[in-house]
């Protein structure tokens, strides 16, 4: 029983792995981002948030994700005071989920419906910050 109590903080705060801290999300010009979407994930947290990435600005509303990104996102990070809403189909249709501030290094661990996960399942998104 004491082992489960020790593990509880680990279960409540997911490992960041190679993902940036949410507060550190900035574009090449140093402007704050709403989120960053990554094409790669890994069974090893240290190798997550890899490969190509797509920067998302606050207020960005994308019913049709950029060419080459449909159903390709495997990791993501959402900045503080921001919320990323995603859809499994275009244009903003199908299953939906809201990601609040934090790092999500392995979308295959996040359930989408009864049998699916959010790995390689994002086709539309909207990101807002307060």
UniProtKB/TrEMBL annotation:
Pfam families named in the record: Syncollin
Signal sequence, renumbered to the chain: 1-17
Source species of the chain: Leptobrachium leishanense
A cellular component annotation (GO) from this entry: zymogen granule membrane
Predominant location category: other
Biological process annotations from GO: exocytosis
Organism phylogeny: Eukaryota, Metazoa, Chordata, Craniata, Vertebrata
Keywords noted in UniProt: Cytoplasmic vesicle, Disulfide bond, Exocytosis, Membrane, Signal
Keyword Membrane: yes
Gene responsible for this protein: SYCN
Membrane topology designation: Peripheral membrane protein
Protein name: Syncollin
InterPro entries xref list: Syncollin
Location(s), subcellular: Zymogen granule lumen; Zymogen granule membrane
UniProt function note: Functions in exocytosis in pancreatic acinar cells regulating the fusion of zymogen granules with each other. May have a pore-forming activity on membranes and regulate exocytosis in other exocrine tissues.
